[in-house]
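README, section 4: Worked example with a bound small molecule

Sections 1 through 3 covered apo chains. Here we extend the same pipeline to holo records, where the ligand is supplied as SMILES alongside the sequence. The molecule in this example is flavin mononucleotide. Nothing else about the input changes; the structure line simply encodes the ligand pose together with the chain.
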Amino acid sequence: MKRLLHIVASPRQERSRSAMVAEHLLARVMQRHPALEVERLDLFAANLPAFDHAAVEGRYHLLAGHAVDPAEAAIWQELKAWTDHFLSFDAYLIATPMWNFGIPYRLKQYIDILTHPGLTFRNDAQGNVEGLAQGRRTILIAASAMPFGTMPEIDGLDFQLAYLKAWLGFIGVTQVDAIRVAGTFGPEDVVAAAMAQAFTDADQLADAL
Ligand SMILES: Cc1cc2nc3c(=O)[nH]c(=O)nc-3n(C[C@H](O)[C@H](O)[C@H](O)COP(=O)(O)O)c2cc1C
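The generated complex, written as structure tokens:
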């Protein structure tokens, strides 16, 4: 790992549970790898472009094997700039809360900005998909009120880690580690135990990198 993009998907700033664990992990990683370049991308502060009519039209033109229309060129240049930025890193740390069983809309918007044919994946003539972000490593920090990981009967409600892993696989990122910060709502001792477990998991992962 030389350049790591630290993606912050919670708007809670210093009160964010996922951010606390991500910062803890990062501090430990930096002790061991002081030359690692880290850039922070706060998705609730970033000026993410809307993914609207022109962007969608351009995508369908690309999928049909055509160039985008001049009317769509500006937004596609912007999307390409975001993708080039994303692909300039060889590692990602994504810290995210669970919102309504999935991810916050700003992280989904970022994913919609990044995920296009010719930018982060391509289709071959047979329709097979090849991810263009291969060789990169990702660490996911997933916070949730519900205690995922300890109650198999709720696993089917997890569209947070399940979704992020599916998306990463689609763009070719197969080296993925995940830490849950699960059970962040409830009695103080329950939340403290969830945080302690997440910090321990973060230490172990940082030491193994
Ligand atoms: C809008 C919203 C929706 C939420 N939906 C869920 C949910 O579906 N399942 C869950 O376990 N927790 C849910 N939570 C709780 C958060 O996932 C939990 O508080 C988490 O620790 C927040 O992470 P953060 O502190 O990094 O923002 C929700 C919180 C908010 C604000």
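What to look for in the output: The domain at 3-208 is CATH 3.40.50.360 (Rossmann fold). DSSP finds six helices and seven strands in the chain.

Section 5 describes how to batch many such records.
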